[in-house]
Amino acid sequence: MVNSHAFSYINLLDKAADAAWLRNEAISNNIANVDTPNYKRQDVSFEGELMRNLNKVEYRTMDARVYNLKLSRIEPRVYTEAEGFSYRLDGNNVDIDTENVYLAENQLTYNGLIQCITSEFGNLKTAMGGG
Fold first, then answer.
1. 62: left (phi over 0), alpha (psi -120 to 50) or beta
2. How much is the pTM?
3. What per-residue confidence (pLDDT) applies to 88?
């Protein structure tokens, strides 16, 4: 991560892209284990923690909130969802159709984040007179 006000949004977008990548791995793992008895689906916790931290920052503008955000305190975390729940007789709680929807949604999110990062670097390039 780069420590500069100019890179605040890029650093935040980078952290969000890392979370989306981790979620992609978790969803892929869920799909791979759809027929594994007693397997419980996994997901990634990130967005809620990000919002809590953004709301803690006592600044009026989003720019100021992002700049003063402590990204090192916000780490994407893999967790097992509904460990005690299963609607299947084999103890597995993965629904392949739902996982495929989550995978498609997450891929769109990841691609959008990468486009935003690219755009932010384009803005920096323009501001520096390079483009």
1. alpha
2. 0.86
3. 87
